[in-house]
# Entry
Amino acid sequence: MSNAAPAPSDQAIVVLSNLVKSYQLGQTVVPALRGLNFRVNRGEFTAVIGASGSGKSTLLNMIGCIDEPESGSIQIDGIEVTKLDDNAKSQLRNRKIGFIFQSFNLIPVLSVEENVELPLLINADVTAAERKERVKQAISDVALGKFSKNLPDQLSGGQRQRVAIARALAGNPDLVLADEPTANLDSENSHKIIDLMLQLNAQRHVTFLFSTHDERLMDRVSKMVHIQDGVIRA
Amino acid sequence: MTTQTAAAIKPQVLAQGVRILAAWTTLGLATAGLAATPSADTLLKDADRARGSTSTGIIWRAVMDTVDDGTKTSVTYELKVKGDLAVTETIAPPENKGEYFVSKERNLWFIKPGMKRAVVISARQKLMGPASNADIVATNYYRDYNGKITGEAKIDGVDCYTLDLTAKAKNVTYSGIHYWISKADHLGLKAEFLSLKGDVIKTTTFKYANKLVVDGKTTPFVSAMAIADPAKPANSAVVKIEPPKLEAIPDDAFDIAKLKK
Amino acid sequence: MNSAPFKMSLRNLSRNKRRNVATGFAIALGFSSALVLGGFMHQAENRMRAFTIYGSRTGHIAIYKKGGLVSYEGNPKKYSLNPLDLAALERITAGMSQIQMQGPEMVGQGLVSNGCQSTPFFATAIDPQLDWKVQQHPYNLEWNGELVNLARGRELWEYPDDATVMAISSPIASFLHKDKPGDPPEPSAKVAAIDCQAADAKDKLAADLTVQLAANAWNGRLSGIDADVVANMRTSNPLYEGGFVRLPFKHLQRLYETKNATSYSIWLKDNDHVPETVALIEAKTKAAGLNLDVYAWDDKRLSPYFNGTMQFCNMLAWFTAAILASIVILSVFNSATMTVIERGSEIGMMRSLGFTRRRVRVLFVIEMTMIAAISMAAGGLIGVVSFFFVNRAGIALRLPGMVEGMTLRLAVNPQIVLLSATLIFVLAIFASLLAVWAVAKNGIAALVSGSHR
# Structure
């Protein structure tokens, strides 16, 4: 299979329209998104770039259905998610979206393969055999086969983030969201993680959308989106 | 000698004589008054005598008719008394024949056929109706109580001394008694028996139609007692006492061991 | 979901070990305390029940003349069961398969004398052979076995039913110098006269077993009988200890010159069918035109001592149980709350993976329930060990109104074990739900970022 990024399709997987979101910080109301419009097509590898407080995380949270806008529309794979109840959103996240967090967020008492298996446990459509196979594949994809029985505190930062990536991909999502995935990693590991994500994007055709303020990564992505003061800048 | 004449002296002597006479007269009258009121002890002794307390032997029969919560009973007793000893034998009805009450001073025993020994009982224990065991043995208030004359009253038109009696010892039947004793012949006409708190628990009236001749002297003797319980006015006990007779009663007539045989 | 939540919850127990151990210790202590308390209550109730039904000869069911329970003492002739009543009761109860044994009883008062001194007595009387069956009943032996009434001598049931024997309480025995009981003398034996004032009077009184009882017979006359002291006994009740005597039923009837009985007692084969049997007997006696009162053994009017004591003990037990429950719930809630707050970002992560609020709550509930289960196992072990040592220690126990203390003996009460375990589980679930409920409803983004705190 070619490592070159596939041609993104014109089919949108994420469509945001007039999204508005504010936060209460003490007595102050801070607008995070101000009528944001955004679109991500299938197969894209997109970085959302912006300064701290620009709304990057809020944007990803909205797309990931882990936060709710005050107004506006969010469509994930054609589904208007603002109209879904909490359980429906949970199912959407489980089937269609994978998450990679800045702090890895692995469960310390579970091994690598158990952490990777976690999203599959609540997917009734996946049999035990399939679950096992997918976990194995995901761990292999992130080159951690030798560490499948290890606990997170036995791994390095980069290895932990690989586990998080494997977990995000185990469910065969359509979209992977990564909020500052390299923030807690050194340069070398940062590059490795981005390379890994690129590789997976090419191999699995999974849409990647990640936020970063690290300009060293800019030249490795095919598409960049600037966000500033809660709106996308051209 | 002064120049006072005999005529002047005479009135003085006369006045002195009147004073002396007045003094003697007053003393005499006072002495006469003291002799008219007997002591409480005397009253009690005289009253006891008329109710059977005597140093010689006396025998008499008594029939006690009781009403006890609607049940009527009649029992005939024969009492033998000599000093501080007394024995009361049940004569009738047949089912109770052979039962004995024996008293020595303040102690009281009961025995009936079939019992190996007499049982020590309380004089105050209920016998039948309002009557207690004490009502069928001889009375000795002089021995058992300290008397105090408290005043005078009439009982059925008869002038009486009123006395308050308090028990001399713990094992005396009653804690206290209000007693009416006739002034004229020192007969106990009425008694109210008191609890420790001073409540009247029983009232008894006495009649003395019987006579007893002792050492040639005829004295009245109790002939009837009417016993009532103020808490249960429907209950009653009436004791009719037949004329007593003097008899020399041997001491072993009061021996419990001999009685049960 | 499969066994994964249980595996995960079990693994999570190793996080915050000290807190989990402390919480577990609180639960274990609470559970073992509940077991010990339940064990105490179980033995107290059974002892009291056995004492009331068998020890006191009350029976499971006691039948009196109408109004007799209250008025018998003032007018025994009117308020006692006459021979016709007794015969009718035997007819009525014949064929009732739930009845094990039954018979008339009598109580009364009077004076007991050794010929020199008298003292008041309170007497109970029952047929000695019936009494033997009642006292030897397995339930009575199990719970009252150590309350041995007999201090010296032999039981009345070892003598013929019509024997003129009696047992007297130890204080009376001392007072009357009848503290060396033995077999009755031959009827033909001569009765020696005793001089009460003599120096050897006490020895002579002690050598002579016969005493006299005097009382007002029911015909109003003074009556008296002899009785031979064949036993000294303890009553275990301070109200009666000073003047208690027991006689064969027929002999006490002789004293009161009657063929009547104070009451009629019925013992059933088990403790479980009393109310319906009472109702049945009530209906039958009414249909037969008998004017009787039928009481269950635990009727307040019949057994005020049992009811009063158990009410007091139950109140104490429930109060203690409430305190224990509060400690458990607060410990679990505190632990669960701290755990949930600390693992807020983990909750957010799981929610982002697709775990619903319900699934997240279940995970924490399973975790706390596991702590509860393990702690209860430990608590159960502590309870068993406590039972062992307490029962071996022979601690004297004096319940209210008892003269001779029993030995504290804890007994496993399966109902209490089940109730305590269920309660602790429910409390653990409730407390952990309470702790996680609100947090699970927090925004996922806030949980992940840690800004939910």
